[in-house]
Structures are given as structure tokens and as C-alpha cells.
């Protein structure tokens, strides 16, 4: 079952369940709308990889907002965003642990033969296809920078 089909089925189920607060339903509708908007912009139907990219982008936007709401002392909005992120994460592949990312970073550094921070682009281009959708780019970037500065 494709992710788009799963979103559709989950939306129907959420509507049948008449959820209190309807948060799950609104998040699923938002995700479907985001996918549809990208399809309209590109004038083609998205494949699984592209749908995952759209959902990962939605999670990233929420994580960025989460930091701002924490700084602004808005626990009500923080709680809502955390729930939204949890719902969206259910549609993404399992996330890599920090240790798994470090191992992939070390492998990519060895594979590319990068020696210093100036070769970060080489390492990132080799690494990102392996972690795409399974790890946050900021975390990967920081780990690569640490590995190359040693």
C-alpha cells in the first residue's frame, strides 16, 4: 500500500471515529493537501520517494516552529506540534539512531577520503542518499562537521 493510499484510508478512519479534537484528521488532511499542492506545482503525480520528501519537509517545518514556540514560552502550541509531529512520523520510515548515523558518517568519510572541513560537500553528497527521510539533515550535518574537524 502506497503512502498516499495509507493517508487516504487513515483519513476515512479518522472521520468514522469522530475523534475528539480532530487533530489526527486535520494533520492527515494537511499532509494530503501538501502532497497535492506539490503534484499540482510539478504537473505530475508524485512517486513514493517524493511523497516521503513532502512529509519529511512538513515534519521539519513543525520542528523548526517547535523551537520558536519553546523560546516564546507557549507550552500549549508546543504540545500540539509534538502531537502533529508524532502523527506525521507514523508515515515516515523508521528513524536512524545517533549511533547508526555516526557509523554511516564514518563510512562516508572513509569512502570519500575527505580530510578536512573543506571536503564536507563530498561527504554530504555521498551520505544524504543513505539517510534521506531517516535522519534530520541538521543532525547529519553536525555529525559530519564533527567528524571532519577531528
- Annotation, overall tally of beta strands: 0
**What gap, in angstroms, lies between the N and C termini?**
44 Å
Question: Helical region count?
Answer: 7
What CATH architecture label of the largest domain applies? Orthogonal Bundle
Mean pLDDT: 89
Proportion of strand residues: under 5%
In CATH, the homologous superfamily of the largest domain goes by the name: Uncharacterised protein YqeY/AIM41, N-terminal domain
Give the overall shape, derived from the CA principal axes. globular
Radius of gyration: 18 Å
- Can you give the helix content as a percent range? over 70%
Report on the architecture of this protein.
The protein is mostly helical and 150 residues long. The chain has two domains: 3-89, Orthogonal Bundle (Hypothetical Protein Yqey, Chain: A, domain1), CATH 1.10.1510.10; 98-149, Arc Repressor Mutant, subunit A (Orthogonal Bundle), CATH 1.10.10.410. The protein is 76% helix and 0% strand. It has seven helices and no strands. The protein has helices at 3-17, 23-42, 48-71, 75-89, 98-112, 120-131, 137-149. α2 (23-42) packs across α4 (75-89). 17% of the residues are buried. The model has no long low-confidence stretch (mean pLDDT 89).
Characteristics:
150 residues, mainly alpha, Hypothetical Protein Yqey, Chain: A, domain1, Arc Repressor Mutant, subunit A, globular
